[in-house]
């Protein structure tokens, strides 16, 4: 190998190094808390809006006639029709 060896790094006592890291971490945490206090109000508003949108998108009851055209429910390979399903079939324009 050619050239001179690079100078060694200055050594620091481990306990003083730990204290230095704790101080840096404390400063970072303090900065995060300041940012978090301002953002928490915005996040709460966003959460409320998202919940309202989800509730609006959700259907209150599952219809027995699906958009694909399935009527009733299948159990163990048999189609189960309830009286309301039969009424819907009779009143629909497609069956007439």
Description:
InterPro entries: FSAF1-like, SSU_Processome_Comp. It holds the Pfam family FSAF1. Helices cover 55% and strands 6% of the residues. The protein is mainly alpha-helical and 96 residues long. The chain folds into two domains: 47 residues; 36 residues, no CATH class. It has a two-stranded antiparallel ribbon. A hairpin with a 2-residue loop joins strand 1 and strand 2. The longest helix has 44 residues. The mean pLDDT is 79.
Overview features:
elongated; mainly alpha; 2 domains; two-stranded antiparallel sheet; single chain; 2 strands; 96 residues; 6% strand
| Helical/strand content category | mainly alpha
Which sequence of strands runs across the widest sheet? 1-2
Q: Mean of the pLDDT scores?
A: 79
DSSP strand tally: 2
Order of helices and strands: HEEH
Helix content: 55-70%
Give the CA-CA distance, first to last residue. 95 Å
How large, in whole angstroms, is the Cα Rg?
Answer: 34 Å
* General shape: elongated
- Contiguous runs where pLDDT drops below 50 for at least 5 residues: none
Q: How many separate structural domains?
A: 2
How many helical elements?
Answer: 2
Question: What percent strand?
Answer: 5-15%
Q: Describe the largest sheet.
A: 2 strands, antiparallel
Biased composition (Basic and acidic residues): 17-41
InterPro entries: FSAF1-like, SSU_Processome_Comp
Biased composition (Basic residues): 1-12, 42-61
Region (Disordered): 1-69
């Amino acid at each position: 190998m050619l050239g001179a060896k690079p100078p060694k790094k200055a050594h620091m006592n481990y306990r003083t190094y730990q204290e230095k890291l704790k101080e840096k971490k404390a400063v970072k945490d303090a900065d995060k808390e300041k940012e978090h206090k301002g953002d928490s109000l915005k996040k709460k508003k966003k959460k409320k809006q998202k919940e309202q949108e989800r509730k609006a998108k959700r259907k209150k009851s599952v219809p027995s006639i699906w958009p694909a055209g399935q009527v009733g429910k299948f159990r163990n390979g048999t189609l189960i029709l309830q009286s309301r399903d039969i009424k819907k079939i009779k009143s629909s324009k497609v069956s007439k």
